Fold FAD-dependent thymidylate synthase.
Amino acid sequence: MSFIKVLDEGYVRLVDHMGSDLTVVNAARVSYAKESSELSDRDIKLIKFLAREGHTSPFRHAIAQFEVYAPLMVCRQWWKYVVGSAHYEGTGDSLDAWNESSRRYITEEPVFYTPKANEWRSKPENSKQGSGDIISWEMGEKHTRELLSYIEIGMQKYEQALADGICAEQARLFLPAYGMYVRWYWTASVQSVAHFLMQRLEHDAQKEIQDYAKAILELIKSIYPVSIDELIVRENG
């Protein structure tokens, strides 16, 4: 599997990858001029040791590349993992790259995330961020209608601006931003992906980005099952 649908219109696609769990092992063993040709129990023990003891540089030799299509509110939460991409141990630069589609250059039909009536959540009782329980269907249905109406108005103004000859990079100002889908490539080391997963799979992470994190986990575990499991266990304490 290399493609997982997320939310109403979004998805995560595994585009490419470099290496395997064996890559991690051989990166660690090169210090002793040793190399394994296939993963053994001894190699798995080495991966466990590396993760447990925080010897993380070998995990940065294994790389995964994803294409993500998600609402802007998810995209901007995700982006901070690239902004702060020097690894948290202070061990140097990470292998992270990010390239995002731009409405300065394209005018493809905008797509917006619209929660259904039974998907709107209440504000939490004891926190300034996050969300609580699902609100009543009646209230949710009201806000779905309100959002659709808001999107329609923005689209009309956007299309009119383009028709009037306004450049795409300014016409996009009329589009409701946070729910608009954007597309990007994310290339990251196994260590970086594990760090992202541990934070965005937590119960208090925003549900929408949790859904994307679950998709990333399913895809990357098919390539680096031992490394991902061990890094997540280590970060989870």
About this structure: The domain at 3-105+185-235 is CATH 3.30.1360.170 (Gyrase A; domain 2).
